[in-house]
Amino acid sequence: MWKYEKKLEYPVRIKRPDPAAAKIIITQFGGPDGELGAAMRYLSQRYTAPTPEVKALLNDIGTEELSHMEMICAIVYQLTRNLTPKEIKASGFDAYFVDHTTGLYPVQASGYPFSADIFQSTGDPIADLSEDMGAEQKARVTYDNILRLVDDPDVRDVIKFLREREIVHFQRFGEALRLVTDRLDAKNFYAYNLSFDVKKA
Amino acid sequence: MSDREKLLKKVRMYHFAVTDAALFLDTHPDCAQALAFYNKYKKLLKEAEDAYEHAYGPLQICSSANDSRWEWVDGPFPWELAANS
Q1: Considering the domain boundaries, does residue A5 fall inside one?
Q2: B27 and chain A: CB distance < 8 Å anywhere?
Q3: In chain B, which residues have pLDDT < 50?
Q4: Cis status, amide bond into B76, omega within 30 of 0
Q5: Among the partner residues B28, B62, B84, nearest to A8 by beta-carbon distance
Q6: Residue A14 domain-assigned?
Q7: Which residues of A fall below an 8 Å CB-CB distance to B?
Q8: Average pLDDT of chain A, as a whole number
C-alpha cells in the first residue's frame, strides 16, 4: 500500500519551455534505464528477497523511484507548456506531439514505448542485486549524457539531484549484496539460491 | 520565493534527510548514530509539515480536515510550476 505526498522530492521550476530538451529527458520516464523501469524492477524483486534488510531496501528504493518518475514527468510537462505548432515542428517534438499532444506517455528518446523487457526479476538475490547495481550505474550514465546535451540551469539542477540519487542507491545495493553473500557458502556463493533452495547442513 | 515555498522547502529538506537516512538504516538497522539522525529529522519534519498544512492545506490525503471543503483537490499540484515557486 502507498500514500501520496502532495509535493515533489526536489523542486522542479523551469522558466523556459524547451521541447527539444523534453524529447531527450523523457527517456528517463519510459526508457531502458528510466525511473519507471527502476521502480517496477525493485518493487517486483522485493517479494522473494531473502532477508528483511533487502526486502526493506528494495521496497524503499522502489518507492523513491516513483517519486523520481514524477520529477522527470514534471520536467517534461513544464518544458512543453505554451508551445506553438511552429515551435513544435522546429524542435522535432512533432513526432511525439502527433500521438500524445503534450500528455505524458512513457517512451524512450527514440519513441519506442516503455517495455518490461528492460528489466528482470530472477528470484535469485545475487542476480537481482547485481542487476540493480548495474541499473543504477546505467541511469547515472544517462543523466551524465543529459547533462552533456542540456544547458538550461533550471533543468540541470534537477538532473544533478537525480544523478546523485543513482550513486547513493548503487552504494546501498552494494551493501545489500554484501549482506546476502555473508549468509552464503563463503567458498561458493553460487552453490545455492538463498531465496529458493534449502541450505544443506 | 513565496512564504509558501519557503515553508515547503523546509518540509522537502527534512523529508529528504529522513528518506536518505531510512535507506542507510535499511542496510544498517542497528546504527545508533543513524537512528539518532533519523529521529532528530523526523521530529523537525513533523513540525514543518504541521506548519505548512495549517497555512496551505494538506500534504497527505489524511490531513484534509476542513469541515466546509475537501481541500485535497485544491491546486497547485506538485508537477506544476506554481507549486514550486
Answers
A1: no
A2: yes
A3: none
A4: yes
A5: B84
A6: no
A7: 3-14, 53, 56-57, 60-61, 64, 70, 73-74, 77-78, 81, 168-169, 172, 175-176, 179
A8: 96
CA–CA dist B29, A186 (Å, integer): 23
Assembly ipTM = 0.96
Instruction: State the first-to-last Cα distance of chain A, in angstroms, to the nearest integer.
Output: 38
Provide the domain count of chain A.
Answer: 1
Q: Give per-residue pLDDT as tens, B6-27.
A: 999 999 999 999 999 999 999 9
Chain B residues in contact with A77 by the CB 8 A cut-off are 79-80
Question: What is residue B79's DSSP assignment?
Answer: T
Give the C-alpha separation, A86 to A19, whole Å.
Answer: 12
- Looking up residue A87, the CATH number of its domain turns out to be 1.20.1260.10
Residue of B nearest to A10 (CA): B12
Spatial CA neighbour of A25 closest among A83, A96, A89: A96
